[in-house]
Amino acid sequence: MKKLDQILDPKTEDGRSYYLHLREGDMPGYVIIPGSPERTAKIAANWENVRDVAHSRHYISKRGVYQGMEQGTTSTGIGALSAEICLNELKKSGVHTVLRVGTTGCIDPNFENGDLLIPVACIARDGSSECYIDPEFPSFADPVMVMALAEACERLGFRYGLALEYTAGSFYLGQGRPLGDEPDSYWPSWAKDIMPDIEQQGVKVLEMATAGQFIIGYLHGMRIAAVLSVVAARKNNNFAYNNGEEKACLAASEALKILKEWDERGEFGR
Question: What is the CATH number of domain 21-269?
């Protein structure tokens, strides 16, 4: 039985989780999950008493204090496939609430690079959630976390909006980017139609991780939501960061603080 446990729930030789290298209790209950490992430093720049917890492959974990509240951050790597591992092992370490901070393309001309968008629901084409559930299963953010994110953006004075999101398991063809300029480059009709089709469906943003994270987090019994900074205004053919990452990182920490205050007061049934 012990050997079976090692296969079903692998650990390092010293008993830490296999990929994240975490033990139970290493991270606080509220954790921000960026895709980029470098973004963990931008998140921690808003904290005091920052401590490095673990670093394994592209998974970097830190913890610190934001305005009196213990928070953590663990990078997931690119896409939902890598995040699936992260969410599984964060749950086993005792984390119950996760907030994705990411970047996104936007097809709504009312938003500009550097603005923040909060997905409320997603179309899942991420390539990971299908390993967990039927494709008809909905992908949605925790509604109370969405409210906390909106409240955080209001308090901080950040321009933001709510959005229907499209998650692709591809950065290039799956998001309507041709493979090349040559006449014989692979460019199927379905790829050409992605952008106009999802725009007609009311989608505002598209990226590579959120839908799968929402589904997998939900199935793990975790609360999960996301805040995304616009870096690719697809309608204007403009790519720029415009300090959106920094705003999203700060909004995430502020939202978790608001959420914890609501939790402690027993609001919204928590």
Answer: 3.40.50.1580
